[in-house]
What we know:
The structure is a single chain. The radius of gyration is 24 Å and the shape is elongated. By secondary structure, the chain is an alpha+beta fold. The chain has eleven helices and four strands, in the order E-H-H-H-H-H-H-H-H-H-H-E-E-H-E. Helices cover 65% and strands 10% of the residues. Helix 11 links the parallel strand 3 and strand 4 (311-317). Helix 3 packs antiparallel against helix 5. The model is unreliable at 151-181 (pLDDT under 50).
Amino acid sequence: xxxxxxxxxxxxxxxxxxxxxxxxxxxxxxxxxxxxxxxxxxxxxxxxxxxxxxxxxxxxxxxxxxxxxxxxxxxxxxxxxxxxxxxxxxxxxxxxxxxxxxxxxxxxxxxxxxxxxxxxxxxxxxxxxxxxxxxxxxxxxxxxxxxxxxxxxxxxxxxxxxxxxxxxxxxxxxxxxxxxxxxxxxxxxxxxxxxxxxxxxxxxxxxxxxxxxxxxxxxxxxxxxxxxxxxxxxxxxxxxxxxxxxxxxxxxxxxxxxxxxxxxxxxxxxxxxxxxxxxxxxxxxxxxxxxxxxxxxxxxxxxxxxxxxxxxxxxxxx
Length: 318
């Protein structure tokens, strides 16, 4: 049996993209927190419930962004890495999973508040509410532009979407050795600001129509619609982060392709496991049967020609 392993403590420390994502998250956290404090203080002293409520709503997103930033700091801390067998890479999807739960709570609170407004309509200060929603929209658009990483999201989605069809289609040469960034912590932060921006757009449209046609029910109705969409995003994020936290089989490794590479002649794969231990680190365990024996180095060379695996355990039996 042969064990091939890169230093697990360096997976996150050497990940330059992860460092950039941490800085982006911190910047957005500062912007969101500043807006939150401004709205709460201004709303309190001007008796504006629209400002006050939106400030506390933004506080929930600031909390989620704070969790995302904390996950980065803890995951890349040397002391944390030493305490876990494969390093602290799992803290990245854990941060994303926690943020997804917060997003779910926000969606449920939106439904509760909207239903109350439908049953007991309240007078709306339209001009003030539209102004607040517009400021919130601008802040969230700026935050989304900071957090967005089109290349990272595109590569991740490419692998995720084609996982079930990759056996019939060949990947381009440029993708054969490429690992997606797969940073679910950044994705959770991005979804939070996008969700807030989405709610702001819906709110502005609802308020404009309600003001013009006196449809007071439209505002809470749009609130319910927005909460349903946000809940759907949160559910998908929970599935993705939960899959990684529970060591789901890495979708970067094409099982059929791996078998085609290894199972030549009398060689058979008896046991195989591959899972993600950090955004750019894959662990793999492989047990093969071969007669005559080829040696672990033979299989390691084959695998490393096609896949980038940081932790590789190979056992050959006769």
